[in-house]
C-alpha cells in the first residue's frame, strides 16, 4: 500500500472490502482495548466460515461465535462465562460441534505470529509442552499444530510451531494518521506481531491525528502506513474494554455481558440489541446513554497523566546545507563529482 494514500473510511466499508467469508481473521488486541466495533461490524455483515485467531478470547470472540461467523478458533484462552456448566457461545458451539478449537500456550501462540511477521515458516519452542494435552490433543490442524524435527546443527529433536499469516488483522489503537501509521502504547502483548504477520491490516483508532503528531513520537508507531489498508476513527471503539489514556474498562457493562453470555437466549437478545440493533458506534453510544445514562461514560473517561516529552531534535537533518553543499567538504554534488573525476575516482 502507498504510504501517502488517504485510507480513512468507515468500519462498514473496511470490513466489506477486506474481510470475506472463509478468511483467516485475527483479532490483534490482547485482552485490553479490543476492537469491539470492528468485531461488531464483522457480525453485522453476516460473514461466515472464519478461522479466527485470538490470544485472549474475551467478549470479542464470544460475539463472533454467537453470530455464527467462526468455524475454527486458534487461541490460548477463552472466557466461557460460567464454565462448562454455565456455557457461553464458545462452550455451546464446542458441544454442538459447530466449532473446532486449537489451544496453544501464550508463548507458542506468539511464536507463530513472530515467525509469520519475520517471514519464517516455523519457530522453535520449548519442549516442555509435549507432556501436556496442548501437544497431544489436536483438531483441524492435525500434525501441523506442532512438529518435532531434528535440529540442523546438533541433530537434537526440537519442537516447532508453524508460522501464522492470517488473511486479515483487525486491531484498535489509540491514534493513527490518515495514511495508516498506527500508534499504540500500554500493554502490548501480541498486538504488533499479530498485525505485521497478517496480509491485510484494518486499524480502528480513538482519533485520527495529523502526520506531524506521528512524526513527533515515532516510538509509538507499531504499524507503518505501507502495511495498512484501512483507517477508521472510532471514539470509544473498544468499549467496554479499556484504552490507556482514553477510558477504563466499563465494569458494569462488562459484567452484564458476562451474565447474558451464559444463556443462548439472553446472548441472542444482547446481540440483537447491542450489535444488530446498532448500525455503527455512534448508534451504540446513543443507545448506551439512553439505557445507562451519559454519566457512566464520563466516570470511566481517563484523567490526564502525560508522559515526559522526548527530544528528537538534531543540529540538522541532512548532510547537505541550504546551498546544497556537503557540510564537511563545503562542495556541491557537481563539484564533488568533478573532483573525483579528475583523480580517476569516479566509476560507472
What does this structure look like?
This protein has helices at residues 11-18, 36-44, 59-66, 83-86, 89-96, 106-118, 133-136, 191-196, 211-216, 251-260, 264-276, 281-292, 295-300, 333-342, and strands at residues 24-27, 50-54, 70-75, 100-103, 122-125, 147-150, 157-162, 168-176, 182-183, 200-208, 221-223, 230-233. The chain is of the alpha/beta class and 348 residues long. It has 3 domains: 11-121 and 165-300, Glutaconate Coenzyme A-transferase (3-Layer(aba) Sandwich); 124-162, no CATH class; 314-348, no CATH class. The strands form 2 sheets. Strands 1, 2, 3, 4, 8, 9, 10, 11 and 12 form a 9-stranded mixed sheet that branches. Strands 5-7-6 form a 3-stranded antiparallel sheet, covered by helices on one side. Strand 2, helix 3 and strand 3 (70-75) form a beta-alpha-beta unit.
Structure characteristics:
348 residues, alpha/beta, Glutaconate Coenzyme A-transferase, nine-stranded mixed β-sheet, three-stranded antiparallel β-sheet, 14 helices
